[in-house]
Amino acid sequence: MELENEGSAGKFERFLFLMIPIIFTLVLLGVLLTLFNMDIRNNVLEVANKIPILEKWVPDPPTDPSKPKEESKKQEVSSNSTIKELKAQLAQQADELKKVTDEKTAQDTKVQALESQIEGMKTEAAAAAEINTEETEDPYQKQVTDLAKLYAGMKASKAAPIMENLTTEEMVQIFSVMNKASKTAILEKMDPQKAADVTIKLKETTSSGDMAIAALQSRLKKEAGTTQTTKTSTNLDKEKLNQTFSSMTPANAASLLGEMYKISPDKVVTIMNTVSDSVRSSILGEMTKNDSAQTAKIVNRLMGAK
After folding, report:
1. CB-neighbour burial class of residue 272 (10 A; exposed 0-12, middle 13-18, buried 19+)
2. Predicted structure pTM score
3. Count of CB atoms within 10 A of residue 103's CB?
4. Cβ pair 245, 279 in contact under 8 A
């Protein structure tokens, strides 16, 4: 038993003899590292904490207060750079948006200018078309249209008697370009027979050219009839001629008929045949005194010779 105790005591003493310097060395190194180099100590503590059994005996390494500051500085620097980059992008986008807005404004201005130009061109084209229409319109037909508007603008009771003095063809021509309401009102105030004639002619009309020709022909016929009537009513008959030249002195009648013979010999012969024989002989006597050759020609015509 004593031998066994001595053997175990010797082993423990040898173990202590070996471990004490090692432990002292480690403690000394730890003190030195603690005093002169915090980073190494922290690294050693980190390594010791990774050993399964030793981690229970080794304390955790203290946190380095400078690292959060450095990280915050780095983060602040990164944030500032990000903010600057975002501001730059925002400014670029604002410039692009301004350019797009300016371009759109310029395009809108161009569009408005083009629309104004188009409106001006349309107005000019409409005015030119109206001028061309007026220039190409038949002046005669335009006058007929204006007359129709004039009669349509009057009261029907006043327009009807005025239009009754026109020929039937002229009334048809005017009624053909008149609106239905005015046409009806004027026809109601016209003489029934004339209104019926106009209505029949309106039904038979074909073109404006035919109506114009018919109206002109009717006007010419009416004017010719009026002229003939006027001539008939204004010409002196044989009795009046006889009375006129019988009341004149033979000398004056001879002088007047001598001058007329130079203009119209037939009329002088007619007058000489109208007057009585005594008046004729007296006039011929005075004419012989003035111009015997002319008197011979008149007598020759009175006898039926040319």
Report:
1. buried
2. 0.33
3. 10
4. yes
94 vs 188: CA distance, rounded Å: 81
Total Cβ atoms within 10 A of residue 239: 9
- In angstroms, the CA 16 to CA 10 distance is 10
49, 58 contact by CB (below 8 A): yes
Environment class of 305 (CB within 10 Å of its CB; exposed 0-12, middle 13-18, buried 19+) = exposed
Distances (CA, A) of 216 to 163, 173, 222, 227, 267: 16, 10, 10, 16, 34
Instruction: Give the number of other CB atoms < 10 A from CB of residue 177.
Output: 17
Residue with the two structure tokens 């602040």? 76
pLDDT tens, residue by residue, 198-248: 888 877 756 666 666 766 676 677 666 555 544 444 455 677 777 777 777
Calculate the CA dihedral of residues 156, 158, 159, 163 and round it to 10 degrees: 130
